[in-house]
């Protein structure tokens, strides 16, 4: 009791000190680079009620957990991956939000109804969808061109090295899809030991042809320089190269794995009230659509998609954006939406096995 | 290192092999610059030499990554696809401040500790030495989190003194190790001689020990400086939104892309350091001339 | 010291008339006090800002009290169950009552902990927790199994046996590819999940190779720098210091550009006809890449300590040895090298320790087989939030290096190095 009193006192002192020093700036931790630049343009530059201070971090919840458990919270909002969104909310690192405060769609649907995916909990505020997707450079293959995820795993038909990342997310799903598992069945199959074995058998086929990457710019360079024939990459990086730099990359829109990106409010955030206002603003359909003017990640709200469709050419430099959106209706039936709950349960054991497989 | 005339051909061969080896190692050290500097002028957003660059086509070169560094975000394309921001300049200033402050503290404290540890009469020397080097051993991320809990209790989170103290701890082992190693060979009879001649302990330290351990102190200080100047984990855990540093800016967006902006930042830092070091060398030579000492 | 002919009566006195023994002891005490005074400031600084906070952090590697606090009656009911028969109703109702009484956040945290013991706990608890609050009872077993059929699975309940004690070695076991079975016997983890022992071994191997490589490359250079006239050596010193100014990230990126399959080095070798196009060297995104890049990054950490020790060695020693008839080689090996041992020691300690904790470089250039134990520590701190395991790995690292340091100190320790 005594300790908690003391802690509360400390928290309030720290909060008061930060608040008076920063004058209610909202501190938002995000990934930096072009992604944060698009958030800045679409969200904070259009927000008139306050100021946003963007902080660059490199993902993970280590900082947030430390801040919340120690009681000295300095971040208000964090941009998180789906697994972190779940773990953080379960472990009480994020505030649960009143869902009714968010702006409904033009057709009257509430924000949660307007989402293309069910919100996993009440902590999350929609951001974007991004995906792992295979791509190659025009002219790499003569004759037939790769069109399916099975082609990515077929080094006989499409010879050349393959760029894949150093963690198991998405690759396991893709391997099973390539092996003929139906999209709906992927996570059921993955929940069995035999299913995981099956995925690794498929991976073994490209093991000797694999070049591993761990930072998102790498696959583009690998493909551009010809070091690999095909690679998996974040769809946003491929799109940026094509849309802004005129690169000749071809995306294989089959068997991509979509990942969610959420904004969350840190528990005990020093500027909670302003931060909530900012979250309401950032999650509104106009702002969601606005972000797609600067980066080709797909907004999560259906109404934002309508705005973009109506506004084509939507990209800021006058190019069409819809064909680069990972969650457009045409490709959704051929995509897997990553099941973060599955990864929360089995992620550790699969990544240990994947690490061991890479080193073999 | 000119060879005397009487050296045998074998000795000559050995000597030139030796020089070549040293040349290779020194080149190995600066090799990254060979690609960093030219690539910082690329006009493409990729980190490899484009065909245009190799053909020396002016189209292949540009200052776009330098413009971003100084927050000149005229071109809309640069504005959104690169890291164009005035945060580079603030970051550089903050990093320099933190690094210099923590280096001074680490060098002072580390030298004190090294002096004590090299004394024959120091009790529990091994234990204290082990404690002193432990900040180097514990994985940085654990250190960062552990310190953050402590700093939260004493209200040092997100403050400048907090960051400086944390970085001082990181720099301390470097100074202790390098200074201790220079003190091992130190002939303690020199101190006794100084004392016999009537010098106070402080005077003796400054006049006798200090010049001898100076190379060790300087190397230790350099390590402490660079550890702080390149540090990113502690900053994220212990610092706050105000403590924006150069490495944070460099690593920004690393999950997605590596922008050539970091190459231009590095080029500028390198030019700055060459300028600084040559100025120091000029000053040293000048003072040598003035004092009439001929370099040996 | 054989001039003992005119030994005076009684104890030897100093000029002040105090017995020499006392005087020496006094000065010894003074020296001791002086040393302790000198070390006290840095030591206190270190203890408060580092040792205590990090010690606290490392206790997470054995702490397992949380589950006892949140699920006390479940643990009690588990103790009274015979583990052979089907899980009794008392176990189910104890669990339901615990969940009803507990804070929602605590349930989330506890399920994370339980998931370490048996994967699946997390989603099971999560899926059930919300519905549990509505259950009326008094019998819960059938209700729970209706919510999720996994509740009938005895294995989940048996896994509580691993978690019931307040302290656990489970994290330390996990860190070396061992685990507890449900009876708390230590067993190996499944073959395909073994990853840590390989990483420990590889981390040590990489650190050794990098240290040796640095030593071999640095020694001649440091010697050159220490013996050249100042005006030249200071200019060459710029080469050594230059890497310091290019951020770690930049250096890593530069090496990627140079060493990758289509990088500068391979292109040059192919263009000059030394290599054929198919035989490009794989120098990046593998073990070699990690070694090359880490060696380059850590080289200054070897050169500078060597240089600063070599600087303190008077050149006259070598000349004296040669005047006494030694060949230059012999003089170098017998006279010069022994005096540089403190520098070698300091450099090796620095490089080895810094190398062992590296994770950013291996993460970026390591590719498939260059990742090290530091990567796993960062993963468990940041991604899986399994701080217990991260702390266990940190503690093992700390203990291992201090042991190595102690060995080093015993074998070529500072005391034994005084060359007569």
Describe it for me?
The complex is a heterotrimer of chains A (360), B (296) and C (420). In chain A, 59% of the residues are buried. Chain A contains 15 helices and eleven strands. Chain A is an alpha/beta fold and 360 residues long. Chain B is an all-alpha fold and 296 residues long. Chain B has 13 helices and no strands. The longest helix of chain B has 31 residues, at 9-39. Chain B is globular and about 75 Å long. Chain B starts with 8 loop residues before the first helix and ends in a 5-residue tail after the last helix. Chain C has 420 residues and is mostly helical. In chain C, 68% of the residues lie in helices and 1% in strands. In chain C, strand 1 (178-180) and strand 2 form a beta hairpin. The radius of gyration of chain C is 31 Å and the shape is flat. The chains are: A alpha/beta (360), B mainly alpha (296), C mainly alpha (420). At the B-C interface, helix 1, helix 5, helix 6, helix 7 and helix 8 of B face helix 1, helix 11, helix 12, helix 13 and helix 15 of C.
If interface size is counted as residues with C-beta under 8 Å from the partner's C-beta, which chains form the largest one? B-C, 104 and 104 residues
CATH superfamily of the largest domain in chain C: MetI-like
> Any idea of the CATH topology of the largest domain in chain C?
MetI-like fold
Radius of gyration of chain C from the CA trace? 31 Å
Low-confidence stretches of chain B: none
The tally of helices of chain B reads 13
List keywords for this structure.
heterotrimer, B: 296 residues, mainly alpha, MetI-like fold, C: 420 residues, 3 domains, two-stranded antiparallel sheet, 2 strands
Task: Indicate the topology.
The complex is a heterotrimer of chains A (360), B (296) and C (420).
Chain A: H1 2-22, E1 26-30, H2 33-44, E2 52-56, H3 62-70, E3 77-80, H4 82-90, H5 111-114, E4 124-137, H6 149-152, E5 162-165, H7 171-178, H8 186-190, H9 193-207, E6 210-213, H10 218-224, E7 230-234, H11 235-245, E8 249-251, E9 257-265, H12 272-283, H13 285-291, E10 298-299, H14 302-311, E11 336-337, H15 340-359
Parallel strand pairs in A: 1-2, 1-3, 5-6, 5-7, 9-11
Antiparallel strand pairs in A: 3-9, 4-7, 4-8, 4-9, 4-10
Chain B: H1 9-39, H2 51-54, H3 64-69, H4 76-81, H5 87-117, H6 125-137, H7 140-153, H8 160-184, H9 189-196, H10 201-229, H11 233-238, H12 246-251, H13 261-291
Chain C: H1 20-58, H2 65-70, H3 72-79, H4 89-101, H5 104-117, H6 121-132, H7 141-147, H8 154-158, H9 160-163, H10 170-175, E1 178-180, E2 186-188, H11 196-227, H12 230-245, H13 248-259, H14 264-271, H15 287-311, H16 316-323, H17 328-356, H18 360-365, H19 373-382, H20 387-412
Antiparallel strand pairs in C: 1-2
Helix pairs in contact in C: 3-4, 5-6, 11-12, 11-15, 11-17, 12-15, 15-17, 16-17, 17-20, 19-20
């Amino acid at each position: 009791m005594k300790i908690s009193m003391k802690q509360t006192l400390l928290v309030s002192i720290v909060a008061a000190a930060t608040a008076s020093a920063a004058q209610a700036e909202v501190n938002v931790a995000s990934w930096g680079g072009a992604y944060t630049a698009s958030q800045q343009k679409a969200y904070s530059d259009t927000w008139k009620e306050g100021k946003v201070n963007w902080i660059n971090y490199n993902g993970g919840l280590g900082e947030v957990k430390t801040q919340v458990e120690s009681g000295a919270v300095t971040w208000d909002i964090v941009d998180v991956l789906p697994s972190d969104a779940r773990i953080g909310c379960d472990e009480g690192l994020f505030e649960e939000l009143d869902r009714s405060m968010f702006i409904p769609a033009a057709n009257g649907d509430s924000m949660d109804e307007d989402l293309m995916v069910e919100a996993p909990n009440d902590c999350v505020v929609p951001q974007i969808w991004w995906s792992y997707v295979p791509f190659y450079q025009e002219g790499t293959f003569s004759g037939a061109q790769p069109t399916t995820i099975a082609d990515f795993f077929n080094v006989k038909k499409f010879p050349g090295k393959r760029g894949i990342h150093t963690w198991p997310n998405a690759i396991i799903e893709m391997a099973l899809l390539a092996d003929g598992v139906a999209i709906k069945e992927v996570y059921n199959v993955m929940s069995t030991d035999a299913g995981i074995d099956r995925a690794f058998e498929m991976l073994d086929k490209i093991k000797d042809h694999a070049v591993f990457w761990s930072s998102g710019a790498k696959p583009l360079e690998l493909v551009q320089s010809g070091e690999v024939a095909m690679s998996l990459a974040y769809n946003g990086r491929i799109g940026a190269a094509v849309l802004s730099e005129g690169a000749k990359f071809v995306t294989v829109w089959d068997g991509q794995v979509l990942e969610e990106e959420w904004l969350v409010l840190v528990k005990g955030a020093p500027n909670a009230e302003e931060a909530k206002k900012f979250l309401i603003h950032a999650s509104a359909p106009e702002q969601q659509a606005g972000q797609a003017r600067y980066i080709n990640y797909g907004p999560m709200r259906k109404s934002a998609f309508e705005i973009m469709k109506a506004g084509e050419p939507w990209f800021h430099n006058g190019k069409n954006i819809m064909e680069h959106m990972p969650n457009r209706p045409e490709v959704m039936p051929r995509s897997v939406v990553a099941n973060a709950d599955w990864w929360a349960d089995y992620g550790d054991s699969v990544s240990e096995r994947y690490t061991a497989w890479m080193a073999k | 290192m000119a060879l005397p005339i009487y050296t045998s051909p074998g000795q000559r061969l050995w000597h030139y092999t030796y020089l070549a080896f040293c040349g290779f190692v020194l080149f190995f050290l600066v090799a990254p610059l060979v690609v960093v500097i030219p690539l910082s002028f690329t006009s493409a957003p990729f980190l490899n030499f484009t065909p245009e660059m190799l053909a020396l086509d002016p189209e292949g070169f540009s200052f776009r990554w330098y413009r971003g560094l100084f927050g000149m975000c005229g071109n809309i394309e640069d504005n959104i696809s690169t890291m164009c921001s005035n945060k580079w300049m603030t970051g550089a200033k903050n990093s320099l401040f933190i690094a210099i402050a923590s280096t001074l503290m680490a060098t002072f404290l580390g030298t004190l500790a090294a002096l004590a540890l090299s004394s024959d009469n120091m009790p529990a020397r091994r234990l204290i030495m082990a404690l002193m080097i432990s900040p180097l051993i514990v994985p940085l991320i654990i250190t960062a989190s552990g310190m953050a809990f402590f700093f939260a209790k004493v209200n040092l989170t997100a403050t400048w003194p907090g960051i400086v103290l944390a970085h001082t701890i990181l720099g301390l082992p470097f100074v202790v190790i390098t200074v201790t190693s220079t003190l091992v060979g130190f002939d303690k009879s020199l101190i006794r001689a100084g004392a016999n001649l009537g010098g106070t302990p402080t005077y003796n330290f400054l006049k006798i020990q200090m010049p001898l351990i100076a190379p060790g102190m300087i190397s230790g200080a350099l390590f402490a400086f660079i550890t702080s100047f390149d540090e990113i984990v502690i900053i994220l855990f212990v610092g706050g939104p105000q403590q924006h540093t150069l490495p944070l800016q460099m690593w920004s967006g690393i999950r997605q892309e590596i922008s050539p902006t970091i190459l231009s930042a590095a080029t500028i830092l390198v030019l700055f350091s060459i300028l600084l070091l040559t100025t120091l060398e000029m000053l040293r030579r000048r003072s040598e001339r003035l004092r009439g000492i001929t370099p040996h | 010291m054989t001039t003992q002919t005119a030994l005076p009566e009684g104890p030897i006195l100093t000029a002040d008339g105090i017995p020499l023994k006392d005087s020496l002891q006094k000065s010894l005490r003074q020296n001791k006090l002086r040393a302790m005074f000198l070390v006290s400031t840095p030591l206190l600084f270190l203890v408060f800002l580092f040792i205590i906070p990090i010690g606290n952090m490392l206790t997470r590697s054995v702490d397992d009290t949380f589950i006892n606090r949140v699920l006390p009656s479940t643990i009690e009911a588990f103790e009274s169950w015979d583990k052979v028969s089907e899980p009794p109703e008392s176990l189910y109702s104890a669990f339901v009552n615990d969940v009803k009484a507990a804070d929602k956040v605590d349930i989330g945290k506890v399920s994370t902990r339980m998931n370490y013991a048996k994967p699946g706990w997390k989603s099971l608890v999560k899926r059930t927790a919300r519905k549990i609050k509505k259950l009326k009872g008094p019998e819960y077993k059938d209700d729970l199994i209706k919510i999720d059929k996994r509740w009938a699975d005895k294995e989940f309940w048996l896994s509580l046996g691993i978690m019931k004690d307040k302290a656990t070695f489970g994290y330390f076991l996990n860190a070396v590819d061992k685990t507890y079975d449900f009876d708390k016997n230590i067993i190996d983890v499944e073959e395909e999940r073994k990853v840590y022992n390989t990483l420990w071994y590889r981390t040590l191997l990489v650190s050794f190779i990098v240290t040796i490589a640095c030593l071999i490359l640095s020694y001649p250079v440091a010697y050159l720098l220490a013996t050249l006239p100042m005006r030249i050596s200071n200019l060459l010193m710029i080469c050594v210091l230059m890497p310091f100014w290019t951020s770690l990230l930049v250096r890593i990126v530069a090496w990627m550009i140079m060493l990758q399959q289509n990088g500068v080095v391979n292109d040059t070798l192919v263009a000059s006809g030394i290599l054929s196009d198919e035989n490009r060297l794989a120098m990046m995104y593998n073990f070699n890449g990690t070694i090359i890049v880490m060696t380059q990054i850590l080289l200054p950490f070897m050169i500078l300590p060597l240089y600063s020790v070599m600087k303190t060695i008077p050149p006259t020693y070598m000349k004296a040895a040669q005047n006494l008839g030694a060949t230059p080689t012999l003089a170098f090996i017998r006279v010069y090298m022994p005096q540089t041992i403190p520098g070698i020691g300091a450099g090796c300690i620095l490089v080895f320790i810094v190398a062992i904790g590296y994770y950013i470089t291996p993460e970026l250039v390591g590719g498939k087989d260059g990742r090290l134990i530091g990567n796993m520590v960062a993963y468990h701190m940041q991604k899986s939030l399994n701080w217990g395991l991260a702390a266990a790995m940190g503690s093992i690292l700390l203990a291992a290096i201090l042991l190595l340091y102690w060995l080093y100190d015993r074998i070529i320790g500072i005391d034994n190095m005084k060359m007569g």
